[in-house]
């Protein structure tokens, strides 16, 4: 495989223009070390954007940061932490899930996958913090959209469209993000030994209360113990974990609100332990032992999370799961070699809406169009895709056979 | 606007008859007198009576109306409540105005999933009212919220004083039903978060009625904060007030609302509502904090200290809900208050990096002298969104044109200092011709190609947002720059 490593926007533009002229498809990569995502399709040339790196402008008081799209997430985290700020959408580190080194994503890769962590329902997704970009489209043209201020409605909101587009609409050279103050401190309540239905009820009640949690996850029996931060506390039992963030005074009050709603055995994780737990949670610590299973990511109406899980367990008794987002996000590990990794069965369960994406699976399970579940008709998506990349050069076939 | 299409005008009677057949006689207006009320939106300087008005009562009727228009080659302008301040709902002489006002039902309130499903004609405030008894609300709160429709909010990606903390419309939506110009109905999202692939929900939001017609909206509901308290203080300069704002954010505090007014706005508001605003101040800062009482009390003390250390004087903190509302009364009434001191005013809406505020205000004062027109500023200080109100008298020859030229200069200034043309009101017709100050030709062409993916014949709300209408076929062509690729040493194929 040929690898192209542009180090300037102009070079990036020329490389894509040349690919356009030669009708040569390109794999668009951040770090370039992860070729496993999406449908298993091999492309001859990789365009690696890690060379477009560096923080260009960071004005903490304006809540705005502009960086090369190839800047590592690590560098951005470090820069904003030094100003007491953070990326509120809490991008998770999925490296370990793919047997890769932790912590080596680029910010472009994070945005292109719209990858968000446990705080998503409360603070927003990557897309909600993505203010503007400069990118090269599939014609080799450098274009920009959005802006560098936190409030802007000038023109179409193309940043929303590029977020989660998996590199198929543009190769991003530069991104501008909204950065916000990090909470002063945090505390997590762990409810020990709840069954799925009780945990769902507790999470739904907590999310509708003035406790104002910013994390609500359920790790069933046998799964919670995989978390170093919980081991020794929960044994083989389950854990429902609810996070509170803010000032100490505020947390002291809101914890009382949580205790009013939640009965049964419990314990607290202090700020330090809580921070460690939620990082582990983002890295899917509980699922890591399921090395060979296919991993699905479901987004569903949150209050119905437990019902979806119950239906899935009836269909796929061997599957393991964890629930995040108060029931709205289900991570599912499905053993076996079914060619579609049981995609149609899983989607058949989503009667109240939602979608399922195949995050990890062997090559032979990622051949078909079941990997992603687009919500709009494919011909509209194809027209949209072509409006940016008329020859479908970028990541051709990786999302869908027709994209 | 380009001259009306004669063929469309000639086809009008047949078109209206087809519409009547689909929507019933009460659903279509063609009588010139009855068309009058639709001739403008909130930007009243622009007026145009439409070819016809259709008032569908269901998604099926919206789809039918669009299909008929598409087949007849007739343009369509969607309209919610007509409060747009950028002329987004300005009709076309050769186009159908599609009023969504009859789609005004709240379809479902789903508290366990903290969302509501509503039709597009439901007003913004009606949603919050419907769930208030249960302790919930819909967060984005444009000042026009009694009147503006949620469909219009989606189309404009509207904000409000609370969007610093709670986000704009786009951050508070879960799902949409959309009808494309062909009559095809799409359902995007639902009660779950984030898209399975391309974020059509995000793209539709703020697309100003150019991509599709919104026929159903699923909004997120938030739990009402237990307490909200407001404080206000006067400052001797806008620099000092701006420094206080930066220090509050620098201290890690994101208030529920943070608003600034300049001297002319303070005077106009105080004369109107007698809220006790400091008339000697050059700038007034209003900060609202919300959340649990302990948290709010703590933050009020911290923000109060920051304000005082930055020269804020006459600090007043609300001790009751009535006092909180009094502090807000002048700000909320700023537009009508300015309306009292001037026959007409023109409301602008640029965003700037907040740190550039003193410079922008200074240059605005110079422009005010140059144009001989007064300007009053209200300002969403937390997020840098300026609302300069230019005072003029439309009855004086040339003043409207001067006000518009002054407004354009202000927006150019916003872009020059690193900001944008519009923070929440949209481009519409008003700022259309300024788009090239912010975007190059390639940028605009890319946006117009997105339009082509939805509406290849450019029938939905044409003439808005883009300065030049480019036909889709024309946009498909490649520009070859001299037929040569530079840097022959770079790896190629
Ligand atoms: C469905 C799915 C599958 C995943 N599969 C894997 C996997 O197999 N291995 C793994 O380690 N992680 C995977 N992840 C995790 C995710 O890719 C990483 O966490 C991401 O943040 C890594 O960043 P990166 O820089 O390495 O990007 P990459 O892994 O190189 O790329 C991720 C995606 O972003 C696009 N992209 C990257 N940079 C840009 C840019 N500048 N402009 C435009 N598009 C860009 C790529 O085309 C690709 O679609 C997956 C995530 C999802 C949601
Ligand atoms: C006094 C006053 C105060 C205001 N304050 C604020 C404020 O604080 N913040 C703010 O953001 N805005 C404010 N506005 C502007 C305006 O209220 C908003 O833009 C609002 O969202 C417009 O809603 P509407 O229903 O009146 O839409 P309309 O004016 O009818 O239409 C606006 C645009 O949306 C399109 N549209 C409408 N409905 C649909 C639909 N169902 N599907 C597709 N397209 C549609 C139209 O084609 C048009 O382009 C204010 C306006 C006034 C008059």
TrEMBL record, chain A:
One of its GO terms (molecular function) is catalytic activity. Signal peptide: none annotated. Keywords: FAD, Flavoprotein. SUPFAM superfamilies: FAD-binding/transporter-associated domain-like (SSF56176), FAD-linked oxidases, C-terminal domain (SSF55103). InterPro entries: FAD-bd_PCMH, FAD-bd_PCMH-like_sf, FAD-bd_PCMH_sub2, FAD-linked_Oxase-like_C, Oxid_FAD_bind_N. Residues 1-182 form the FAD-binding PCMH-type domain. Pfam families: FAD_binding_4. The keyword Flavoprotein applies. This is Glycolate oxidase FAD binding subunit. It comes from Dongia mobilis. The lineage of its organism: Bacteria, Pseudomonadati, Pseudomonadota, Alphaproteobacteria, Rhodospirillales.
Automatic annotation (TrEMBL), chain B:
Transmembrane segments: none annotated. Gene3D superfamilies: 3.30.465.10, 3.30.70.2740, Vanillyl-alcohol Oxidase, Chain A, domain 4. Residues 46-224 form the FAD-binding PCMH-type domain. Pfam families: FAD-oxidase_C, FAD_binding_4. Keywords: FAD, Flavoprotein, Oxidoreductase. GO terms for molecular function: FAD binding; oxidoreductase activity. SUPFAM superfamilies: FAD-binding/transporter-associated domain-like, FAD-linked oxidases, C-terminal domain. Its cofactor is FAD. This is Glycolate oxidase.
